Amino acid sequence: MSDRPHVGVTREFLGLPAFRTAAKTALGDPVLRRNLAHATGTIRAKRAAAVGELDNWEELRLAAEAIKDAALHRLDEHLEAFEANATAAGATVHWARDAEEANGIVVDLVRAQGADEVVKVKSMATQEIELNEALAAAGIDAWETDLAELIVQLGGDWPSHILVPAIHRNRAEVREIFLREMGRVGRPAAEDLTDEPKRLAEAARLHLREKFLRARVAVSGANFAIADTGSLVVVESEGNGRMCLTLPETLISVVGIEKVLPSWRDLEVFLQVLPRSSTGERENPYTSVWTGPVAGDGPQNVHIVLLDNGRTRVLADPEGRAALRCIRCSACLNVCPVYERTGGHAYGSVYPGPIGAVLTPQLRGTGSDIDKSLPFASSLCGACFDVCPVRIDIPSMLVHLRTRVIDERRGGVPSGEQVAMTAASWTFAGPRRWAAAGRAVAMVGKALRSKRLGSRQVLRRLPWPVRAWSQARDAPVPPAESFRSWWQRTGGGHE
Question: Where's the LUD domain (predicted)?
């Protein structure tokens, strides 16, 4: 029996199609849409109930925003303080400019321990740098221990949600994955396994237990890093993270540099807003904190990899740096009408949904088709800002990034959209041109209504050159008279 993970898909995100193309595929999958609608609806309701218990929720949001902004404003100082205090506590701190450096550091540390496998705490940062793939290339097995991440890994799949990576799977699908794949990489699922949640959780627990007990190295991320003590904090709901953080001899934590908070006092605010925004709970079932190694208790070799990977570039953009406030709660995904209908895979990133639409193009740049399309993967309804516990103005940031994408396209052969916008700009700039356009549209409307459209209020498909616009939306039937003509005819509305 091979103990190597069965992974049928690699995360070559940059080769994926643009959001609009990927979303069209997702919209045609009724099972996916049903799973997403049920899961996001449930999480939304839980969050609303938990937030509704607090009279000072908006004050907490304002405090979280202020703390994060202050930390980012003096990020260099806080990072140096964190390194000094973590080192004094016995940890070894490494700095990584990009994914390649971070992966190289982790691979070398695992090899130095003579290990050929690691157990992992759920971590967005390690997914971002594709650490599992780098470890596999070095002959090292990486076992995901979060239940949803385990489902994704065994299914050879991609995560599709920040908090619930397997949100696109239902219980029946999870059962089939466990029955088919667990035996290939370890303890098999029971032959009489049902899709009852309790039985599925039991199968995962038994499968993972042998990996926890034999693993010599663990890899984690961190929700927060406390500068004045050099401590790392992980919050979770299952307890698998604590197993990884306490049983192995060596612990390697990959932490984005934006996770630093100045002091313990700052953490108090986030331990209130994070659980309510993510899982709809008053507090996280497990909050683990570690400050270097402790003799005879837990890992004796503690390493921390501080990851940049584009974050300083984001920090340098006054209009985009607020994205670094994100605490990965996923509240914006759960209220987004676009995400609910397309799922996370359409975003082509480990950061899906509204926050992914603004964070990914800043971290990776807008050189690929998928990254250029992400700022447009939104209706700009504003629901994401309303629920964000750190008040990231995602709609304004999306407009900023759309402007950047358009500016980068200037020059060369114009696209159809650019031609249409140039024509619209020319029309809107002159009163006479605008009036003539209004008369022309009214003539079209009058002609259409003369064909006895009856009660129809929309046109299903427009002719070329605007046909592409109407493929995904209905156009209203133009009125038989423009407002300007009506106003002039009636003397200002006094017929």
Answer: 79-307
